[in-house]
Amino acid sequence: MISVSHVSVLSRDDGAAILTDVSVELDGSSTAVIGRNGSGKSTFARLLNGLQMPTDGTVTINGHSTATALKAVRRQVGFVFQNPDLQLVFPTVVEDMGFGLRNQGLSADEIDRRVLAALENYGLTHLQHHATHSLSGGEKQQVAVAGVLVMSPDIVVCDEPTTLLDLPNTRLINRLLLSLTQQLIVVTHDLELAASCARVIWFDQGRIAFYGDAETGVRQYLASVG
Ligand SMILES: Nc1ncnc2c1ncn2[C@@H]1O[C@H](COP(=O)(O)OP(=O)(O)O)[C@@H](O)[C@H]1O
Ligand SMILES: [Mg+2]
Q1: Going by C-beta distance under 8 Å and a sequence separation of 6 or more, which residues neighbour residue 138?
Q2: Domain span at 186
Q3: Minimal-distance CA residue to ligand 1 atom 4
Q4: Tens-place pLDDT, residues 201-210
Q5: Mutate which of 8, 9, 11, 83 to test ligand 1's pocket (most atoms within 8 Å of Cβ)?
Q6: CATH assignment at residue 43
Q7: Which ligand is the nearest neighbour of the Cα of 55?
Q8: Ligand 1 — pocket residues by CB below 6 A?
């Protein structure tokens, strides 16, 4: 359960309101976050794993506050960035996938076992010895998602994971995301993906304009854009 309670975020630069009194509870259902550029979507997503702290209010993940239990939060919330080049930092796919697990102090055998199982699970075994820099954009984003999932998070947050991809790769990543058993929160301009989620949160100027059934939210958003 994600609980965002009366959260406001002010800009450190000029004190401008980025998010204003945002309250929402998200259960296990998949949720798309939509809205115009600059409406606060990324700021909201970053609140969920403590990459961004609220100026006011609280964010708790399964009862753990991002302000007081950041480590517990980060164990439960995996974050996928828009640009996989920023997420993939090791020379080969297996090394990259094992990075977070090495930080957890697991044995080399256990790390190998988990990484190979994750690669197998997401149909990526053939890429295991490839150089990360040589992968296509779609392959990079698949490996970045798999690298988050290998950490066994309860919740996966993605900020525009397909913005840099072509249509076939967008479809591939969308299918992967929608098939996850973990709770998914995905910031996206892809309204087909948004409508395929269970819920939609629509942000408008730092406030929630709509939260509820995804197809209804997408329809209202489209009508508002004109
Ligand atoms: N760290 C920051 N400092 C100052 N302003 C910011 C910061 N992050 C975001 N903003 C501003 O807050 C608003 C919302 O940004 P963001 O959450 O990135 O929106 P979105 O992801 O919907 O495009 C924008 O006007 C942006 O310029
Ligand atoms: Mg954004």
Answers
A1: 165, 166, 168, 169, 172, 173
A2: 2-225
A3: 11
A4: 999 999 999 9
A5: 11
A6: 3.40.50.300
A7: 1
A8: 11-13, 18, 35, 37-43
- Closest by Cα among 55, 65, 68, 75 to 6: 55
Ligand nearest to the Cα of 11, by number: 1
**Atom of ligand 1 lying closest to residue 46 CA:** 17
pTM of whole model > 0.90? yes
When divided into structural domains, the chain yields a total of 1
Looking at the predicted structure, is the pLDDT value of residue 135 above 80?
Answer: yes
Whose tokens are 């309250």? That residue is 23
Choose the residue to mutate in 43, 207, 208 for probing ligand 1, maximizing ligand atoms within 8 Å of C-beta.
43
* Residues above pLDDT 70, as percent of the chain: 100
Stretch 19-47: mean pLDDT, rounded? 97
Q: Whose CA is nearest to atom 5 of ligand 1?
A: 11
Q: Could you give the dihedral angle defined by the CA atoms of residues 10, 34, 182 and 163, in that order, rounded to the nearest 10 degrees?
A: -100
- What mean pLDDT is predicted for residues 2-9? 98
Q: What is the pLDDT of residue 161?
A: 94
Stretch 6-25: mean pLDDT, rounded?
96
The yes-or-no verdict on residue 80 having pLDDT over 80 is: yes
Q: Are 171 and 161 in contact (CB under 8 A)?
A: no
Ligand 1 atom 2: residue of nearest CA: 11
Say what the pLDDT of residue 104 is: 86
Among protein residues, the one with the nearest Cα to ligand 1's atom 3 is 11
Residue 226 has pLDDT above 80, yes or no: no
User: For the chain, where are the alpha helices, taking DSSP H only?
Assistant: 41-47, 70-76, 93-103, 108-121, 137-149, 167-178, 191-196, 214-225
